């Protein structure tokens, strides 16, 4: 169904990949020359997880720009206006985060974040930003978070679900500490840097395996965050899973609770039901909805999740997740629609909470 | 319903830190000696009926923060032999779910043989001698 009233907060919306020419103004002289002389300026920096122009990458009807239309006009026409969106948390999934050269990766990430601020946020007050960070170099990531954080329009730091290590590992804690301190949510987006095979049994052969396997990666990430003690160490940190799906959550929570009872001594800081912690601290975006088209079954799944606070509205624009303007799956109860569209997002991002109160976080 | 006192073992048979599985009136019971005090739990985990007597006796693992481990209450818990659920030996209460999950706990005590000989009691499996100490369970 369509979003029934204005005011929605879209928590996962993607801006187009900027080319090197667009990033150049935000790159210093040394690196600009490096990119030119090393011919790196010709690369498009698309992540392997999100190749350009694949069928799932963007809806066919959303790929053409109309004549005389700017990219921002297009975004307004296709993603913001049709759903009556009041706030959209945008991200740019740029391949900079996959570079092995940490310095170059950091320079490009900074450029992408500046491009987001100057070329998008400055021109469209409905947009909020994601700080793209190089998770493989926590030192650079923290520096970038600290650099960008004074701009209150950035509400989260963004990493991919499959990187060098499992999310939650202690080497990554400086990133989480910086997020918590600055009132930024930790956004974990679907996708892989392919530093590891995306399955526990090596490399799959087909795109479908990679795509379906994302939900397993999110399960691993949530369990790792719990087990490593991230939620204990950072009591104010919120984790938002982007493009994760959520219908797999009930079985994960059942399994977690059950296994915790038998082996909780190895993680004694996890001193209450894991499902309670997940319900309090983890948020998941709506699209793509994996549920059957049948609303009755979707309601059953939601009842099993047993928490109305967890799902955040998202279009996942421009990915092909729904037809026309039907951004909401059928079968959602009215009060839950309101929570998903507005209340949950407003309560999940510390900076949106602060915005609502009219102050700084 | 009034309880019957059962003599279930000689004190010497269950030294401190050990446990013994016994059968009383058709029930399997796990008998624990915790520092000289005796506790009896139904030998049936409330989860799926695994034997508690066959489980490991452990302390309480806790942490003030991730990576800072602490063990207290040495030997006061038993982990079910099947799925590792922890139960307080003194109470039968589950550590993870104390409100809703508990193993059946029975009152256990020690009596001098001389006292028992006078009393009404049931000792199916062995004779009671006046000069010995015995573990008794009321159920």
Overall geometric form of chain A: globular
The structural domain count of chain B equals: 1
Number of helices of chain B: 1
Measure the end-to-end span of chain B.
10 Å
CATH superfamily of chain B: Rieske [2Fe-2S] iron-sulphur domain
Largest sheet of chain B: 6 strands, antiparallel
CATH class bucket of chain B:
Mainly Beta
Shape of chain B from CA axes? elongated
Description:
The complex is a heterodimer of chains A (361) and B (139). Chain A is of the alpha/beta class. Chain A has one domain (8-357): Metal-dependent hydrolases (TIM Barrel, Alpha-Beta Barrel). Helices cover 40% and strands 13% of the residues of chain A. Chain A has 14 helices and eight strands. In chain A, helix 6 (173-182) links the parallel strand 4 and strand 5. In chain A, helix 4 (102-121) packs parallel to helix 5, helix 5 (138-148) packs parallel to helix 6 (173-182) and helix 13 (334-348) packs across helix 14. The longest helix of chain A is centred in the N-terminal third of the chain and has 20 residues, at 102-121. Chain A is globular and about 60 Å long. Chain B has 139 residues and is mainly β. Chain B has one domain (5-138): 3-layer Sandwich (Rieske Iron-sulfur Protein). Chain B is built from one helix and nine strands. In chain B, the strands form two sheets. Chain B has a six-stranded antiparallel beta sheet with strand order 1-9-8-4-3-2. Chain B has a three-stranded antiparallel beta sheet with strand order 5-6-7, with no helix packed on it. Chain B is elongated and about 55 Å long. The mean pLDDT of chain B is 91. The chains are: A alpha/beta (361), B mainly beta (139). The interface between A and B is medium-sized, with 17 and 18 residues.
């Amino acid at each position: 169904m369509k979003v029934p009233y204005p005011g929605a907060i879209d928590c996962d919306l993607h801006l187009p990949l900027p080319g090197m020419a667009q990033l150049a103004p935000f790159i210093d002289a040394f690196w600009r020359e490096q990119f030119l002389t090393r011919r790196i300026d010709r690369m498009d920096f698309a992540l392997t997880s999100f190749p350009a122009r694949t069928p799932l990458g963007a809806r066919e009807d959303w790929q053409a720009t109309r004549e005389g239309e700017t990219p921002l006009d297009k975004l307004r026409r296709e993603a913001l206006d049709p759903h009556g969106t009041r706030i959209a948390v945008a991200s740019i999934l740029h391949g900079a985060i996959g570079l092995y050269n940490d310095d170059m990766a950091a320079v490009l990430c900074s450029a992408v974040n500046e491009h987001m601020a100057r070329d998008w946020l400055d021109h469209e007050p409905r947009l909020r930003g994601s700080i793209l960070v190089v998770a493989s170099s926590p030192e650079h990531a923290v520096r970038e978070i600290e650099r960008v954080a004074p701009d209150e329009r950035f509400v989260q730091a963004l990493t991919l679900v499959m990187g060098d290590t499992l999310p939650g590992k202690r080497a990554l804690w400086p990133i989480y500490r910086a997020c918590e301190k600055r009132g930024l949510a930790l956004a974990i987006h679907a996708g892989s840097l392919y530093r590891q095979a995306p399955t526990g049994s090596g490399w799959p052969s087909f795109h479908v395996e990679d795509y379906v396997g994302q939900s397993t990666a999110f399960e691993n990430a949530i369990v790792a965050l719990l087990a490593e003690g991230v939620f204990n160490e950072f009591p104010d940190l919120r984790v938002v899973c982007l493009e994760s799906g959520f219908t797999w959550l009930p079985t994960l929570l059942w399994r977690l609770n059950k296994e915790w009872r038998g082996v909780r001594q190895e993680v004694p800081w996890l001193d209450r039901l894991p499902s309670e912690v997940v319900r309090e601290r983890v948020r998941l975006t709506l699209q793509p909805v994996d549920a059957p088209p049948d609303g009755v079954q979707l309601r059953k799944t939601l009842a099993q999740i047993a928490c109305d606070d967890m799902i955040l509205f998202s279009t996942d624009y421009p990915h092909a997740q729904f037809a026309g303007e039907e951004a909401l799956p059928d079968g959602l109860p009215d009060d839950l629609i309101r929570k998903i569209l507005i209340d949950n997002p407003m309560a999940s991002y510390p900076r949106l909470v602060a915005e609502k109160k009219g102050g700084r976080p | 319903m009034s309880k019957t006192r059962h003599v279930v073992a000689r004190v010497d048979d269950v030294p401190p830190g050990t446990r013994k599985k016994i059968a009383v009136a058709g029930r399997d019971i796990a008998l624990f000696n915790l520092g000289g005090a005796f506790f009896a739990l139904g030998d049936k985990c409330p989860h799926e009926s695994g034997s508690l007597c066959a489980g490991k006796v452990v302390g309480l693992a806790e942490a003030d923060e991730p990576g800072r481990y602490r063990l207290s209450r040495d030997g006061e818990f038993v982990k079910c032999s099947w799925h590792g659920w922890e139960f307080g030996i003194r109470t039968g209460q589950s550590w993870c779910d104390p409100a809703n999950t508990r193993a059946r706990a029975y009152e256990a005590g020690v009596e001098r043989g001389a006292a028992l000989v006078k009393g009404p009691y049931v000792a199916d499996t062995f004779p009671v001698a006046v000069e010995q100490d015995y573990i008794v369970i009321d159920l």
